[in-house]
Amino acid sequence: RRLQEAGFDARTTWSGHEALALLQSSEFDVLLIDSYLPDLHATDFLERLNRMPLQPWVVVMKGGSASAPESLRRYRGLGVSSVVNKRDAAQTVQAVSLCCAAEPLVKADAH
Question: Which of 17, 18, 22, 90 shows its CA 20 to 30 Å from the CA of 47?
């Protein structure tokens, strides 16, 4: 809802598997995921996402104000562009806005 209020066209899914299925049939510029998914560990989800040829920019929302450095490194290694506090709407909108200003990611081996 916060992204829609900021002018973004947003779609919502309630599970990692549902999101992956939607990503197979639709293109998105940015993917905003919660670090907690009810059916997949976030890293499993991101590994599956990395196997797709066209990848949206990924922003991970986590509870609390900061993540442990090893957690941030793991997310960066999986292609995450930003990690934000899920309770900070302004930070989330800013991260999504920055991603929308960038070019889409295409894996080199996708051609």
Answer: 90
Nearest partner of 94 among 78, 82, 103, judged by Cα: 82
How many residues appear in the chain? 111
Q: State the average pLDDT over residues 43-70.
A: 81
CA angle 93, 94, 99 (to 5 degrees): 100
What distance in Å separates the CA atoms of residue 3 and residue 56, rounded to the nearest whole number? 16
How far does Cα 46 stand from its chain's mean position? 8
Q: How far apart are CA 88 and CA 108, in angstroms?
A: 34
Based on its alpha-carbon atoms, the radius of gyration of the chain, rounded to whole angstroms, reads 13
Structure tokens at 80: 């995450």
